[in-house]
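Sample entry was shown:
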Amino acid sequence: MSRPTGGFLERLDKGPVIGDGGFVFALEKRGYVEAGPWTPEAVIENPESVAQLHREFIRAGSDVCQAFTFYASDDKLKNRGHSAGQHGVRGINDAACKLVKSLAKPAGCLVAGGLSQTPTYLTTRNKEIVKSEVKKQLEVFKEHEVDLMICEYYEHVEEAEWHIEAVKEFMPGCPIAASLCINENSDVHGVPTGKCGVRLARAGADVVGINCHFDPFRCLEGVKKMVKEVKEAGFDKTHFMIQPLAYMTPDASVQGFIDLPEFPFALEPRVCTRFEMHRYAREAFEAGIRFIGGCCGFEPYHIRALSEELISERGGWAPVACISWGKCLEKHTKPWVRARASRDYWENLNPSTGRPFSSSYSKGDQWGVTAGHELVKQHEHTTTEEELKKGHDFKASKGHC
């Protein structure tokens, strides 16, 4: 069987389309991305590291390969004294597009450009200034004739609307997939999740949904609300997307996993198994979601699990090295391991953490600050001692000592 073909919206009309995984977290673990800024200068400084990750996601079944341009707006590359600004917004976005096109196109995959929230929005909430930052990136994506634009990782639906408008103005006719990093209840400003979906569709997005900040099953609950309200609002042709964390976050508050004390360096005990990913893919498909992928924490083996679960829905096309619910274990030397070669075993396993004194939930930071608050205003110079002290003092005043 060959990989599904056609344009992005055409493929969605036919069945599920599999996205890729979380590049910033995967490459940080490999030593090619700096935690904190989470910017993609690796496309220039270590391009082979990015290329190899693209290859692995393609091999695992990704239909859409996103250029590694997360947080690659000019203001973010220069934020708080970060050195990535030396490469410039054009340099990084151009390198990312050339790299992903060289690998995705020969494999029959689609290429997506990517936009995400900006420091400028947090600091100014000025529509025209924000859109001018976005258009610096869009110039490059337009030149490279990407197959679609993914506008992702917005805590505030308002900023996502502005980015969608910019794409429609600057790249008319390009399909737009837009997702927010919000929970099942609301965005950070309190706009209900279902209504956020309607606002994305009304702004002109062809595909709407949720990505990052929360686990697959919490994201699913949020996107289900979007499906219901978007359809009730009359947007019959709108498709839906989901690209969650690969970490379980039942205890995360409104700002998601970044509030958890384990973020970002001790999240491993929360990683979803590949069999939880099977369940996620099935539930997403049954909810009417057709663009299904992952964000932070998603490794290629997670994407392979999504692809395996939806083989029949994708016309019989299967990724390389399927494990077929552990059938490969029939070749193991130990009989008790061979006995695990079944769907029933892995689907019903309740995995242990191996940490007898670890808790199942954490108490997250809930500072309640967002766009417009003094503590989240951004700038190009490095973070000062005064700013750090203000943060510590604020934390103490909230009782988070």
Summary: The first helix runs from residue 8 to 14. The mean pLDDT is 94. Strands lie at 17-18, 64-66, 110-115, 148-154, 176-180, 207-211, 239-243, 291-292.
